[in-house]
Structures are given as C-alpha cells and as structure tokens.
Amino acid sequence: MAQNPPTLRPDLAPRARLTDTPRAGQPTIGMVSLGCPKALVDSERILTRLRAEGYGISPDYTGADAVIVNTCGFLDSAKAESLEAIGEALAENGRVIVTGCLGAEPEYITGVHPRVLAVTGPHQYEQVLDAVHLAVPPSPDPFIDLLPASGVSLTPRHYSYLKISEGCNHKCKFCIIPDMRGKLQSRPAHAVIREAAKLVESGVKELLVISQDTSAYGVDIRHAEERGHRAHITDLARDLGGLGAWVRLHYVYPYPHVRDLIPLMAEGLVLPYLDIPFQHAHPEVLRRMARPAAAAKTLDEIAAWRRDCPEIALRSTFIVGYPGETEAEFQTLLDWLDEAQLDRVGCFQYENVAGARSNALPDHVAAEVKQERWDRFMAKAQAISEAKLAAKVGQRMEVIVDEIDADGIATCRTKADAPEIDGNLFIDEGTEGVSVGDIVSVVVDEAGEYDLWGRLGE
C-alpha cells in the first residue's frame, strides 16, 4: 500500500471528477480545473450554470464541443502548468476557453496560445457563460435537462467544499492572489448556511470550509446579521456544526479570536482540525514577508488550543528559501517546528511570481540551498508526523470512507485528515458491509510516516 508522498502540493484541490453522461445530441463542455479548492468551487458553479442551460459535461476532450480550462496563478510553476494544460486542450480539442486566476493576465496567455477562444479572470462566471454561448450555442431540452438540487459537484458526493468568501485584505509580499481575486468579499451567512444545508440534504457528510482568509470572514460586511445568522467565523462555525455533518476549517489565520473556535471543537460541533498558514517562524523573515511576526506568541496560542481541545490536529504550510533567509533564520524555523509539533505540514521552496513585491528583495537564496533546506525541513516534519501517528496505535477513532478498491481495501480519513493534502487510514479486510461515504469506527493497528492502518471496531 503506497503512502502519501511528502512532496504533495498543499495548494492543489483534489482532481475534478466528471461523471455526467450527455444525452444524444446534447452540446457538451469539458472542464479542466487546476489550482486550489477555491478554484474547484468556481468550476462547480460554472458547470452548474451550464448544466441548467442544457449543456452536458464531458469527462474528456474528444467528447466535448469546447473545453474550459480553469487556471492557477499562485506560483510561476503553477502558471507553467496552466499553460501546459491549455496547450494540451488545444491539441486534443482545439476549442478552448480560459478562466481562473491566470486569466487576470490575458496577454500572458494569448502570447503563448493565441488560438484560445476567450480569456476571463477569476470568478467571472457571466463572462465564461457568454464565451461558451458564442462557441457552442445552448440547446436545452426542458423535459430532460433538470438541474439537481445540489448542482454539479466535482468531488465525491460525500464531501464538498463550501466557499464562504472571495479575495483577501492581506498584502503578503510573495503573493499576488489579492491582485487577481480582489479584496475580501464575504458571502451573507444565511446564504452559506442555506447552501450547506442543501449539500447535507443531498448526502454530503463533510463540509470543507474554504476562503482566502477564513478568520476574517464577515469583516468587510461588519459581521452583518441577517435571517438569524451572523457573518462571523465563530457564529458561522457553530451554525454549520448544527447541520449534522463533519465541518473542517481551512486557511485560518491565527488571529486572537481563533481561540473562540476551540470550544466548538471540544464540544464536537466542528472537527478538531485547524489549517493555519504560518509560512515561517523567524520574526525578520515574517517582516520581510509583510506578515505578523509573533511566532513566540503563536506557540503560546497552540499550547492553549491543545489544553482546551487535546485532540486538535494542526496543519500548516511554510516557505523555505525566502529572499534574505539566513541559515540562522532557517534554523529558528526548524527549532520552532520542534516546539510546535504540528500534525500535518506542507512546504514550498520560494519562487518569484511576476508582480510580487518579494521579487525586488535583496539576497535571493540559491536554488541548491533552497532544495537542501526543503529536504531538512521535510525530514523533521516527517519524523514528527511518524511519532505522532505511532502514538495513535491502539486507539479507536471514527473515519470517513473515501474509496473501496476491487480488492475490498478501504481508503479512509480520520478527523485529522483533509482530502488529498493529509494522510489516509487503510482498512485491508472486513469491508464487505462498508460503502463509500460511511463514517465507521476503527481501531488503529499500524502507523507509517503519513498514514495509518486499522480494522473495523467490534
């Protein structure tokens, strides 16, 4: 059984799953969705609108009348990946519409691929639909093309991403996402709850709350209360926790009010899991990043979270080789990681991104030094993960079943594991009565560096 690789990109969403079967004569659109879960939600909304207008969703290039490529612009490597995907779609299909974060730079795309039919930016749903209408006119059948109550989902039906806001008010020097997606725009709380309730009614067992800055939810609308729901992350988490599904919080900045979420986790309303982008631990590096520089206080916060909710799992991402990072500053990061003992960790080697202010910083770190530091960082993170998982052997825990293969081996996740970016728990036998989407009790038998193995609890 293969274990999760330590190089897994923490900015990527699960691979989009297209399962529609178009009717005879139905115009069909393919979708390639790259980048983060927020982009995957955008793809779902686009396809839901198209499905309502009578379009079929094609799982491959050859069966589609046109292809939408939803791009990522997070890093230069992600931009290159997006350009490669556009080129592949052009070669295989020839009729390509580009959207997403990289679409904020249309000349960059058309300079490489002048044959694309249209380029639109992130969350520009109407412009995408207009481009599709021009390329492939709709032909709806009102007796057949009915929109499912839950819309089109690109994830397995037992979990779903729930986007609560767009944009970000931070000005981190290494990031251009706010330039592409704009300032924070929170959705009304009642609209989020309504969508979440529909998802749960349709069979979703786990809601993955996402945004660019989940902790800041509602700040832009002054935490407005409407129809009995207040736009504040603590209130929203409590309301979501009342729907009966697992609720997992992603991209939570460590503001002081995050501590108010911990009692909800201790009560079981929200999963005891926090995904917090710390990025680094040395105060000078954090200042050069234009991020809060209070790593020592963060350790105090982590200790308080664990005191109030001992089972909490903490995931984070870090950047090594940031411009000006000295060996001493990197060692501070390793020492901090030793103290913090985070459960799940992802790491990037710093990359210049066109338009980012960090490009102009002095003393860029050599590529071989960045690689060496990444190797040392991941070795320490792996050792921490292995020790933490070894301590779980013999414990009984609830897991959600993501997949069961032809041999009856079930791939599951614990409450400490988000889809694709964290570990798995495998059940090797006795799964005859188990179905995908079930939440079952298991006893952990074995632990590896990133994954667990267990048996169904008696």
TrEMBL record:
Keyword terms of this UniProt record: 4Fe-4S, Cytoplasm, Iron, Iron-sulfur, Metal-binding, Ribonucleoprotein, Ribosomal protein, S-adenosyl-L-methionine, Transferase
Documented EC number(s): 2.8.4.4
Co-factor binding details: Binds 2 [4Fe-4S] clusters. One cluster is coordinated with 3 cysteines and an exchangeable S-adenosyl-L-methionine.
Subcellular location: Cytoplasm
Coiled-coil boundaries: none
Reaction(s) catalysed by this chain's protein: L-aspartate(89)-[ribosomal protein uS12]-hydrogen + (sulfur carrier)-SH + AH2 + 2 S-adenosyl-L-methionine = 3-methylsulfanyl-L-aspartate(89)-[ribosomal protein uS12]-hydrogen + (sulfur carrier)-H + 5'-deoxyadenosine + L-methionine + A + S-adenosyl-L-homocysteine + 2 H(+)
Top-rank lineage group of the source organism: Bacteria
PROSITE patterns xref list: MTTASE_N, RADICAL_SAM, TRAM
Domain Radical SAM core positions: 154-387
UniProt-listed GO biological process terms: tRNA modification
Residue ranges, annotated region (Disordered): 1-28
Ranges for domain TRAM: 390-458
EC top class, as a word: transferase
Molecular functions (GO terms): 4 iron, 4 sulfur cluster binding; aspartic acid methylthiotransferase activity; metal ion binding; protein methylthiotransferase activity
Residues reported to bind [4Fe-4S] cluster 1: C36, C72, C101
One Gene Ontology term, aspect cellular component: cytosol
Binding-site list for [4Fe-4S] cluster 2: C168, C172, C175
Cofactor or coenzyme needed: [4Fe-4S] cluster
Residues covered by the MTTase N-terminal domain: 27-137
Family under the similarity heading: Belongs to the methylthiotransferase family. RimO subfamily.
Function: Catalyzes the methylthiolation of an aspartic acid residue of ribosomal protein uS12.
Name of the protein in its database record: Ribosomal protein uS12 methylthiotransferase RimO
